[in-house]
Specification:
The complex is a heterodimer of chains A (about 70) and B (about 180). Chain A is mainly α and about 70 residues long. Chain A has five helices and no strands.
Chain lengths: ~70, ~180
């Protein structure tokens, strides 16, 4: 046990655990995939804020609606 | 020992940085992903005549602005029916659909589309300014980065589709 503690193994194990936690925790907490959106009630969809507007509609000649 | 502490702190910083970038990616909500979810809800809260079969054909007319988001609706259950997403280039082909989304690129052809599906049990949906007043049953808009929609009840009734009271209650405007 003492030999293990003096080696690099604890540092490597801690690093791996932190990286795994950082990669998994945020997405599990707040995913906004389409599959997730389809589970939300319509009332909640109305409250969500979009973060990126698709410019294709404008490029193709359509006006932005309501903006 | 000090070197080991520094190494652990560096690892911690890297891990936190990765976490922050993952959080930013998770927060991302593109406009047409949200609108795809609205389309699904429109289907959920609309009733079609009983003689419509087991498949609800959701047809996109015009250049598809969804960028693949509608793939997630393919085969999705709506009550006892399932959705089939299709892209149509010809106006006459829209008669075979139960939901027609008129893309912004095709907004100029709105009158022709409405004429083509006149008398059919077709729920028309758009996201173009003034489309509801022109006769589209449900029209989405973006205001302060949020999606809202207006309903044209007269158009829905003429198309023999029944919009639920919930849809009408949540619409920003209901055209009678």
């Amino acid at each position: 046990m003492t030999r293990w503690l003096r080696s690099d193994a604890p540092r490597r194990a801690l690093g791996a655990a932190l990286a795994a936690l950082a990669l998994c925790a945020p997405t599990a907490a707040y995913p906004i995939s389409l599959a997730r959106l389809l589970q939300l009630p319509l009332e909640q969809l109305l409250r969500l804020e979009i973060t990126s507007m698709r410019s294709t509609a404008t490029e193709l000649g359509g006006e932005r609606h309501g903006r | 020992m000090a070197a080991r502490v520094r190494a652990v702190l560096c690892l911690l910083a890297v891990a936190l940085g990765m976490g922050a970038s993952a959080a930013r990616a998770a927060d991302d909500l593109p406009e047409y992903r949200l609108k795809a979810a609205f389309l699904y809800n429109f289907a959920l809260f609309t009733e079609w005549p009983a003689d419509v079969g087991g498949t609800l054909r959701l047809c996109v007319f015009g250049a598809d602005p969804f960028g693949g988001e509608l793939d997630g609706l393919q085969g999705k259950a709506v009550g006892t029916r399932s959705l089939a997403v299709q892209h149509k280039t010809g106006i006459d082909a829209l008669k075979a659909c139960q939901i027609v989304f008129i893309a912004p690129s095709a907004a100029g052809q709105l009158a022709r589309v409405l004429e083509a599906v006149d008398g059919q049990a077709v729920l028309t949906v758009a996201d173009s300014p003034g489309a509801a007043r022109q006769g589209v049953a449900l029209n989405m808009a973006v205001t302060q980065n949020k999606v809202s929609f207006e309903a044209n009840l007269r158009a829905a009734r003429a198309a023999k589709v029944n919009l639920s009271s919930k849809l009408l209650r949540l619409a920003t405007e209901v055209i009678q």
